[in-house]
Write a structure and sequence with these properties.
- It contains 15 helices and 22 strands.
- It folds into two domains: about 270 residues, Aldehyde Dehydrogenase, Chain A, domain 1 (3-Layer(aba) Sandwich), CATH 3.40.605.10; about 190 residues, Aldehyde Dehydrogenase, Chain A, domain 2 (3-Layer(aba) Sandwich).
- Helix 1 packs across helix 7 and helix 3 packs across helix 4.
- The protein is α/β, with parallel strands linked by helices and about 475 residues long.
- The strands form six sheets. It has a seven-stranded mixed sheet, with helices on both faces. A six-stranded mixed sheet has the order 9-8-7-10-11-21, sandwiched between helices. The chain has a three-stranded antiparallel sheet with strand order 5-6-22.
- The protein is about 40% helix and about 20% strand.
- The termini are far apart.
- The chain is globular, with a radius of gyration of 23 Å.
- A hairpin with a 4-residue loop joins strand 5 and strand 6.
- Bound molecules: ligand TXE.
């Protein structure tokens, strides 16, 4: 089956007539092909978006909102189809795609469809000067949205929905590794009545199709989620053109556990925050620090629970851990397990590839827990982005805070404690864009989402996203 670009409301082959194989990670087989799009396809997408902009930016908020909510409803109607497609492309359990990825993609459209009707700008009366200032929030024009493979439709729509709600037209590129649900989204946009050219989806490699988007002189803003190295590259390309940038990059998030926490809740959530989506979520708590008073107990209880996780085919309803996204990614993650051994880490469980009967060429890996001798080792510092976590004990709040902050990333942090003063102190001090206390990945779409340090710049979510996708213009009227 061939995936096609979605440009000006219709499905098109790439101009180059070149195609890229798309693999199913659960069995290692090529099951579709995607366009190897070039600059020429991006130019077509840009032109379609630019001509749609005048009308879309003047479409009433109620009409924009209605269309976005219609897209949301159609995603819900097509839940099973989208969940299966997401799983086939990415390797994640169908159950996860069905309960998280696709419902959340639908929520993204519904949320921003509603949010835009509540988005207000400020006004300031210049008292004594007989003047009033107000702020217009105008759409930017044509914007670029580039997304990764780990939560394919979820992150793709997290960018597209606010961009469209704010009145922009979009040139978007999903990851070349997981293009399928973005392709299917085109059909749904047409069915929902999204006017032609408002959303354009170009498939292809980052270095060609992606590069053409970030280099385009008239694509004035880029919203990107992906690797830190790619984010740095995008910033360099965009800077001379003064593009607006939102970069959501990698993470190496601490999960800090104090002895006074609600133990069972912490234990169950920690299994989830370590291994959900095969550990391929930028928010996963990949560094677990445990207060020494409960370290031995935690270590044995945690390892026992992790050993019970079932690695298996994504469509099997009993599967907890599906396949990793690609062969190169599997090799990268395995490489880190070897590095851990060289650095005197102890593999407490996992560490090996898994052969799933009937799917022998799939990319399966056991959930792996590594006890590390020091927080400075590479597996504790570098983003692995797979089903691998490190654990180590700590003695004092001061020390764990130091270790938590001593990485280049700063996306999220999780804290388990019932001590209020400690919660307040640590939440203030943790270098992260998001701090969860006694929970993990509880997301309220109104809240700002993003990281500090090498985890990126800018915030998505709520009105932050609508601010990103609009230009404020101050109007001062003297009367
Ligand atoms: O990401 P890339 P990769 C981390 C994770 C992973 C590493 C690399 O550690 O191992 O990043 O993953 C597009 N111009 N995260 O290589 O390359 C690309 O086509 C424009 C964390 O898959 O950054 C894809 O659509 N676009 C992350 C998107 O960027 C370019 C999620 C992301 O791909 C481009 C994924 C270019 N020059 C990986 N080069 C998170 N924060 O959640 C690539 N792309």
């Amino acid at each position: 089956m061939n995936i096609q670009n979605y440009i000006n409301g219709s499905f098109q082959n790439p101009k180059s007539k070149e195609w890229i194989d798309n693999y199913n990670p659960s069995n290692g087989e090529v099951y579709s092909q995607i366009p190897n799009s070039s600059k020429a396809d991006v130019e077509d997408a840009y032109n379609a978006a630019a001509s749609a902009f005048k009308t879309w930016s003047n479409t009433t908020l109620i009409d924009r909102s209605r269309i976005l909510i219609k897209i949301s409803e159609l995603l819900e109607t097509n839940l099973q189809r989208f969940a299966e497609a997401e799983s086939k492309d990415n390797g994640k359990p169908v159950s996860l795609a069905k309960s998280v990825d696709i419902p959340r993609s639908a929520s993204n459209f519904r949320f921003f469809g509603n949010a835009i009707t509540q988005f207000a700008s400020e006004s300031h009366e210049s008292v004594g000067l007989n003047a009033i200032n107000y702020t217009l929030r105008q759409p930017i024009g044509v914007v670029g949205c580039i997304s990764p493979w780990n939560l394919p439709l979820y992150l793709f729509t997290w960018k597209i929905a606010p961009a469209l709600a704010a009145g922009n037209c979009v040139v978007a590129k999903p990851s070349e590794v997981t293009p399928m649900t973005a392709y299917l989204l085109g059909e749904i946009c047409n069915e929902a009545g999204l006017p032609k050219g408002v959303l354009n989806i170009v498939h292809g490699l980052g270095t060609t199709a992606g590069q053409a988007i970030i280099e385009h002189p008239n694509i004035k803003a880029i919203s990107f989620t992906g690797g830190t190295a790619t984010g740095a590259h995008i910033a360099k390309v965009a800077a001379p053109m003064f593009k607006k940038l939102s970069l959501e990059l990698g993470g190496k998030n601490p999960n800090i556990i104090f002895g006074d926490c609600d133990y069972e809740d912490m234990l169950n959530t920690t299994v989830r925050s370590s291994f959900a989506n095969q550990g391929q979520i930028c928010l996963c708590g990949s560094r677990i620090f445990v207060e020494s008073s409960i370290y031995d107990k935690f270590k044995s209880d945690f390892v026992e629970k992790v050993k019970q996780l079932k690695v298996g085919h994504p469509s099997n309803s009993e599967t907890n851990i599906g396949a990793l996204v690609s062969k190169p990614h599997l090799e990268k993650v395995k490489g880190y397990i070897n590095i851990a051994k060289e650095e005197n880490g102890t593999i407490l469980c996992g560490g090996n590839e898994v052969v799933v009967e009937g799917y022998e060429n799939g990319y399966y890996l056991e959930p792996t827990v590594i006890e590390v001798p020091t927080d400075e080792c590479r597996v504790n510092q570098e983003e692995i982005f797979g089903p691998v976590v490190t654990i180590m004990p700590f003695q004092t709040e001061k020390k764990v805070l130091q270790m938590a902050n001593k990485v280049k990333y700063g996306l999220s942090a999780t804290l388990w404690t019932n001590n209020l003063k400690r919660t307040m102190r640590m939440s203030n001090e943790l270098q992260a864009g998001i701090v969860w206390v006694n929970t993990w990945m509880m997301r309220d779409l109104r809240t700002p989402f993003g990281g500090v340090k090498a985890s990126g710049v800018g915030r998505e979510g709520g009105f932050e996203a609508l601010r990103f996708f609009t230009e404020p213009k101050n109007v001062c009227i003297k009367y």
